[in-house]
Amino acid sequence: MKKIVFIGAGSFIFTRNLVRDVLTFPAFSDSHIALVDTDPEKLDFARRAVSRIIEEGGYPATISATTDRAEVLSDADAVIITISLTSSTRWWSDHVIPMKYGVDINVGDTRGPAGIFRGLRTLPAMLDICRDIERLCPEAVVLNYTNPMAMLCRAMQEAFPSLRIVGLCHSVQGTAGMLAQWIGAPMDEISFLCAGINHQAWFLEFKRGGSDAYPMIREAIGKPDIYNHEQVRNEMFLHLGYYVTESSGHNSEYCAWFRKRPDLIEKYCTHGTGWNPGLYCMGRTAPPPDEDEAMRQRIENELKNPVSLARGGEYAAYILNAVIGEGTCFTFNGNVRNWSLIDNLPDGACVEVPILASPRGFDAAHVGPLPPQLAILNTQNAYCDELAVRGALDADPTAIFHAVAYDPLTSAVCSLSEIKSMVKDLFEANSDCIKGFRRLD
Question: Which domain holds residue 92?
Fold first, then answer.
């Protein structure tokens, strides 16, 4: 019997779907599923959902739920982390403060001023989790889904090099599925090579039946409905020659081309970016209201719906099956440090590359150099991540300022003195939860 611990189990949809996937593998059908969350109500929602999966699937699995992770981490075989420490109020201030300086953020969970301060709020908890894992289950496979992915994984992997930590994001397989749909190809005919950094990795190869499918993608993008579906990413593909992972809303923040003027935001970032919390925040003069009751009702409705036992497309269960389950090898894109993996990205930075999962653990692929036009953009963002991590680990506000100062979007909009004022404002807004930093001069 394997023990699989879910930390941040109150992330209802994530937990329900990942547990469902795990239990479909025979090696895990009798697992002990340990759910951990600091919110007792959300924890109970997750417990009820998982109990239904176990019951309706007829699995011999067992379940526990606790607010104290130390109770269940001992001898765990795997730990999956899906925590979130960003409330609606924090999320609102992450958008509104940069906007005072003209930096119009869309999502703000990965990099840039909002992503960096999200990382500063989240990293202490992540390091505490890793300390407990190192003490109680040092051989466990650790899979992280929490953002900002690159910053958190980079810091965790430096601070705890002996732990088997990999960061996972569904943007690679999600984008591959989207592109396959655009060209009318089933996924079993698609193969690809994808590498870069989280939320900004590139399909260096995308093939259908062994043949280059990029001409078909270029033809598909010529159709207005497909072009308008992902305006930012399609523009990046048409001009840079390679398709980027993660949605247009996210990617519009990671470069200087799309959000620095109102006319560009209207043209590229208003109608084809999908989920757009930035617009929601900008339309408010105060933080969003407490939405807990609406959340409760949504989850209660979900719990009444029929349970699907079909395995989904997230990587986690396949990875666990390869490493601690049946041993069936599985290749996926994950986030690890760049030790001779991508030749023209910074050594030691967090990169997203193909990884082979097997009973021996994780073997990351040497990709070689990226095309230079891609490496330039990845390098700038990766060095900002590096500065942010260094600032977080050393409690150095100057490093945080420099990380924000070189952010592509921020630097396209603001002067250095404006950026320093913005960073001071963000520190002030987070003064109750970001501790130990001296005042920024």
Answer: 3-102+109-168
pLDDT band at 297; cut points 50, 70, 90: confident
More confident residue, 281 or 16: 16
As a residue count, the chain comes to: 441
Structure tokens at 427: 């520190």
Residues 6+ apart with CB under 8 A from 364: 334, 336, 341, 353, 354, 355, 356
Among residues 182, 144, 138, 184, the alpha carbon closest in space to that of 161 is found at 138
Tell me the pairing of strands 200-208 and 190-197. Answer: antiparallel
Task: Give the per-residue pLDDT at 307.
Answer: 83
Q: Whole-prediction pTM value?
A: 0.94
Radius of gyration of the chain (CA): 21
Nearest to 398 by CA among 337, 439, 349: 439
118 inside domain: yes
Query: DSSP string covering 29-66, please?
Result: TT-EEEEE-S-HHHHHHHHHHHHHHHHHHT---EEEEE
Is the C-alpha dihedral spanning 361, 170, 104, 121 positive or negative?
Answer: negative
Q: How many structural domains is the chain composed of?
A: 1
Q: What is the CATH number of the domain that holds 124?
A: 3.40.50.720
pLDDT at 298 over 90: no
Do β-strands 243-244 and 200-208 pair in parallel, antiparallel, or remain unpaired? antiparallel
Q: Is residue 28 part of a domain?
A: yes
Per-residue pLDDT tens digits for 35-60: 999 999 999 989 999 999 999 999 99
CA 169 from centre of chain: 5
Nearest of 56, 51, 55 to residue 33 by alpha carbon? 51
Lowest-pLDDT range, 119-128, 281-290, 370-379? 281-290
Query: Does the annotation mark 366 as catalytic?
Result: no
- The predicted model gives 405-421 an average pLDDT of 98
Instruction: Tell me the helices (H) and strands (E) count for the chain, helix number first.
Output: 19, 13
User: 32, 170, 199, 402: which is the annotated catalytic residue?
Assistant: 170
Has residue 417 been placed in a domain? no
In a domain, 44, yes or no: yes
Per-residue pLDDT tens over the stretch 309-362: 999 989 999 999 999 999 999 999 999 999 999 999 999 999 999 999 999 999
CA angle, residues 271, 276, 281, in degrees to nearest 5 = 125
Q: Which two tokens stand for residue 132?
A: 């407990």
Higher per-residue pLDDT: 14 or 218: 218
How high is the pLDDT of residue 276?
A: 62
Please identify which residue in the block is written with the tokens 């879910």.
6
